[in-house]
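Input.
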Amino acid sequence: MQVPAILGRKLGMTQVFVDGKRVTVTVIAAGPCHVTQVKTAETDGYNALQLGFEDKPDRLVLKPEQGHAKKAGVPAKRHHREIRYPNDVAPDVELGAEVKVDVFEGVKKLDVIGTSKGKGFAGVMKRWNFGGGRASHGASKSHRRPGGIGRAGSISKGVFKGKKMAGHLGNERVTERCKLVKIDAEKNLLLVKGPVPGANDGLLFIRRSKREYGPIEKPAKGETATEG
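Output.
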């Protein structure tokens, strides 16, 4: 069984020694997850599998969620994420199968997806790294302002769409490519080097790096569908 992704939580940072060198890493508690649904082109119109992460207390489980979990033969899950497969590649995974960190054995690069830290309303210098106005002669109360934002001439129709301005900073989906340093299969931990998005205890979706391994491709005859 090969599943190209897993769900986890960011625990924090530490350091490990690799070949005598100190390496700063982020620790992710990944899985164990369960396959809560397997979709095929015949039944659902497309191929995909659904992963469930973290058991949900019985008092919070709704009846539709109970039925969904019962079909898979697993406890009701708090978080679900879907992994899409190409139309000509059906997931070769059993319903209710357990997915652990060992699915990344031999993988060197991971895409870590999470929600970045929200930093409220920010100006253009903090949000977009603008240089700011002059700090010498002729500059009056315009040191951190964005400058002109409108259009001139025959196309005076207000502000350009997508103009970089002050606004809400952070709290958005971010994908970062990280290096997989170590796998601790006994404790279900991933140690990665790179900028993992979000605060500690934040939910993460971890998959094999699409940049390194490409999308899921049609396997050769007799092989299992994997990424790369």
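The chain has four helices and twelve strands.
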